[in-house]
């Protein structure tokens, strides 16, 4: 079964991602204490076609990107250094695009793929993030109902 294996928030652009065991999700906003929940994320001010409340990435994608980095002689990224809010296992996050799903009791809708940028490399001093995570950087989602998301919560599609 697909489940949450990592939860992270950052209070501001460029600040380290803080590890959480659980976090409150607010409908129409995002995760409590996160820069996107407060409208202060790197992409918050850009015109949007889709909601950017939270980001999800599969741990399998992180592992594949890190293998590529190591093959290129570069340093791999830790899970929190990907700057994604929710790390999941056992599901293709791209299959959530345009669909409603639940993490625990919280309802979300996959809104758009992320475009890996330079920020994780800039924050960590590690090179190659945008290239290694291209086509595996995860997705953004809209929070449709509030509640608590915790490590171990199951991901259910309707």
Automatic annotation (TrEMBL):
It comes from the Bacteria. It comes from Bradyrhizobium quebecense. SUPFAM superfamilies: PK beta-barrel domain-like. One of its GO terms (molecular function) is molybdenum ion binding. This is MOSC domain-containing protein. Residues 18-158 form the MOSC domain.
């Amino acid at each position: 079964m697909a489940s949450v294996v990592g939860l992270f928030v950052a209070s501001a652009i460029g600040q380290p991602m803080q590890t959480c065991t659980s976090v409150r999700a607010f409908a129409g906003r995002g995760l409590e204490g996160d820069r996107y929940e407060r409208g202060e994320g790197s992409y918050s001010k850009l015109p949007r076609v889709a909601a950017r409340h939270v980001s999800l990435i599969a741990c399998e994608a992180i592992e594949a990107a890190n293998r590529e980095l190591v093959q290129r002689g570069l340093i791999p990224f830790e899970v929190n250094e990907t700057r994604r809010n929710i790390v999941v296992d056992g599901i293709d996050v791209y299959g959530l695009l345009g669909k409603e799903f639940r993490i625990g009791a919280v309802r979300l809708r996959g809104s758009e793929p992320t475009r890996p940028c330079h920020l994780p490399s800039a924050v960590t001093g590690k090179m190659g993030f945008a290239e290694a995570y291209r086509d595996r950087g995860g997705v953004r989602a809209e929070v449709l109902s509030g509640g608590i998301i915790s490590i171990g919560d199951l991901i259910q599609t309707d």
